[in-house]
Amino acid sequence: MSRRRRILIRTTDPLAYEVLAALRIAALAHGSGPGTKQVEAQQSLRESKPWLTTAEAAERLGISDRAVRKRIARGRLPAMSCGGRWLVNHHHVRIAQTLD
Asked: Which stretch of DSSP H or E encloses residue 50?
């Protein structure tokens, strides 16, 4: 947080300033540093990706992308449309793997 913003918060909302200051002191005492490590956060996000594209689901199921879309159209594989493409929950892919 910038110095200017801290001063603005201190004058407009003293309670918020006290809470933020206490959190910063606690973080420094804990040794976590001033922020999060972006690289680690991005890697863990990739590993625990809850939604898969149809191509990713097809790769895990060992079938074609078109076959995944057919299963979605027939209601055999739950999915949601997002921005013109289908996203499949990784739990549903695991279930489909056990049923095949």
From this structure: none
* 1-59 per-position pLDDT tens digit: 677 776 776 677 777 777 777 777 777 666 655 555 555 555 454 455 789 999 999 99
* Cβ atoms within 10 Å, residue 87: 16
**Beta carbons within 8 Å of 16's beta carbon, 6+ residues apart:** 9
Name all domains of the chain by residue range, CATH numbers in brackets.
3-35 (no CATH), 46-99 (1.10.10.10)
Q: What is the pTM of this model?
A: 0.52
Do 89 and 78 contact (CB within 8 A), yes or no? yes
Q: Which of 90, 88, 46 is nearest to 67 (CA)?
A: 88
97 in helix, strand or coil? helix
